[in-house]
Amino acid sequence: MNGPASRTLQLGALARVEGEAAVRLRLKDGRVTAAELRIYEPPRFFEAFLVGRGHTEPPDLTARICGICPVAYQMTACQAIEAACGVAVDGPIAQLRRLLYYGEWIESQSLHIHLLHAPDFLGCADAVELARGHRRAVERGLRIKQAGNAVMELLGGRPIHPVNVRIGGFYRTVSRDELAPLADRLRRARDDALETVSWVAGFDFPEASFDGEFLALHDPGRYAVDSGAPAVLPAPGGAHPVRGFPVDEFEQHVVEEQVPYSTALQSRLDGGRHLTGSLARYALNGRWLHPTAAEAARAAGLGDPAAGEVCRNPYRSILVRAVEVVHALEEALHIIEGYRPPPRPHVDVPARESAGCAATEAPRGLLYHRYALGPDGTVTHARIVPPTAQNQAAIEEDLRRQVQARLARSHTAVGDEELAALCERAVRNHDPCISCSAHFLDLAVERE
Amino acid sequence: MTGRVVVIGVGNPFRRDDGAGPAVIESLRSRGAPSAELAVSDGDPGRLMELWRPADSVIVAESLRSPAGRPGRLHTLRADRAARLAAETASTHGLGLAEALALAAALGRLPHAVVVHAVEGADFSVGVGLSPAVRAALPALVHLVADSVRAAHR
Question: Cβ contacts (< 8 Å) between A119 and chain B: which residues?
Answer without folding.
Answer: 90
